[in-house]
Amino acid sequence: MNLDETDRKILNKLQTDGRITNQDLAKHCNLSPSACFDRTRKLRDNGYISSYVALLGPHLNQRPLLIFIEVLLNRTTGDIFRQFAEATRRQRDILECHMVAGGFDYLIKVRMKDMAAYRKFLAEELVDMPGVRETRTYAVLEEVKSTTALPL
């Protein structure tokens, strides 16, 4: 499926307002409601839209502290990679975990209530995960830009 300008308009609007009604989305995109509904369904069915979510305000939801963590594993074997990945998927405090190329193996993103909560997570959860040899913590002082919208 090749995206045309109208598809991009639909996707851009949904990225900024996922709760917009089909009627309002159709008006915004100069389409009839039925044509807009069909295009949106096709975009969803083809994987351009993966889900609709509510993004919560971290400061009001007891998670103001944003932290990135570099993780270096003690061995880089398929078993250790699988075990570590499975452990991160089960850990509710981990928002994102990415295997990366470079000087360490994984980059993790967490949000915590405060530094004491992070210290507890680090000591009781993260360092005991399979294969963890070393971690480096980067506490965010200021979020300069944070978006979930993909440029189209």
Taken as a percent bin, the fraction of beta residues is: 15-25%
Helix content: 25-40%
Quick check: average pLDDT? 97
- Large-scale geometry: elongated
The number of distinct structural domains comes to 2
Strand order of the largest sheet: 2-3-1-4
Low-confidence stretches: none
Q: What is the number of helices?
A: 5
Largest sheet: 4 strands, antiparallel
CATH-defined fold name of the largest domain: Alpha-Beta Plaits
Radius of gyration from the alpha-carbon trace, in angstroms: 20 Å
Terminal-residue CA separation: 15 Å
SSE order, as H and E? HHHEHEEHE
Question: What is the CATH class name of the largest domain?
Answer: Alpha Beta
Account of the 3D structure:
The protein folds into 2 domains: 5-45, Arc Repressor Mutant, subunit A (Orthogonal Bundle), CATH 1.10.10.10; 65-139, Alpha-Beta Plaits (2-Layer Sandwich). It is elongated and about 55 Å long. Strand 2 and strand 3 form a beta hairpin. The mean pLDDT is 97. It has a 4-stranded antiparallel sheet with strand order 2-3-1-4. With 152 residues, the chain is of the alpha+beta class. It is built from 5 helices and 4 strands; from the N terminus they run αααβαββαβ.
